[in-house]
Design a protein that fits this description.
- About 40% of the residues lie in helices and about 30% in strands.
- It has 6 helices and 8 strands; from the N terminus they run αββαβααβββααββ.
- The strands form 2 sheets. It has a 6-stranded antiparallel β-sheet. It has a two-stranded antiparallel ribbon with strand order 7-8.
- β7 and β8 form a beta hairpin.
- α5 packs antiparallel against α6.
- It is elongated and about 80 Å long.
- About 15% of the residues are buried.
């Protein structure tokens, strides 16, 4: 029976790695979170079985801390079940988007005793969604542009937004004269 349990646990870990889904469990009477190795990888934390709640919440982007759960909404089981928020990974300093799905276990009196859930890195999906939004916006602006300059300005603005850079512009190149004239910056 012990060998079957070990094999099942190993298969679950392999499935989590393949699906890139981490799991967590919060015992509401304690101040710690049991996490899977994939949770640690996604959050950029050193691999461990347990972290304090403070350590995992500390990874959440400061602007998104009201989105993730807190002690009050966990204890009342009113924390949002499905949320998306940003984290800043300690391992590399990168900002990533996380989808968290959770549920609660209750005792015989109907009181919440445990929060269980999964986390999934959805950064690429979020960026793809943003790029599509900028492309649609660009299409709308190009449709009403009356000059090449207006069209180029719209394209530069869309490029700047989609790449999350501070400046983008365009220039006219005169190959015969060997000259580059910055039209808009």
């Amino acid at each position: 029976a012990r060998q079957k349990s070990i094999n099942r646990q190993f298969r679950q870990q392999e499935a989590q790695e393949a699906g890139r889904i981490g799991t967590f469990e919060i015992d509401l009477s304690e101040d710690f979170v049991k996490v899977s190795p994939e949770f640690c990888r996604i959050f950029g934390l050193p691999q461990a079985d347990v972290y304090t709640i403070e350590q995992t919440v500390g990874v959440v982007h400061p602007e998104d801390r009201t989105i993730s759960s807190n002690a009050q909404n966990r204890e009342s089981a009113t924390a949002e079940r499905d949320v998306e928020y940003r984290i800043i990974r300690p391992s590399d300093g990168k900002t990533r988007w996380i989808a968290r799905r959770a549920s609660f276990d209750f005792d015989a009196n109907g009181q919440p005793i445990r929060m269980l859930g999964t986390v999934h890195d959805i950064t690429e999906r979020r960026f793809a969604h943003e790029r599509m939004r900028y492309l649609l916006e660009l299409g709308d602006r190009l449709h009403i542009a009356e000059t090449i300059g207006e069209a180029a300005e719209a394209a530069g603005e869309s490029l700047r937004k989609s790449m999350n850079i501070t400046r983008a512009g365009y220039a006219t190149i005169d190959l015969l004269a060997g000259r580059l004239t910055v039209e808009h910056d």
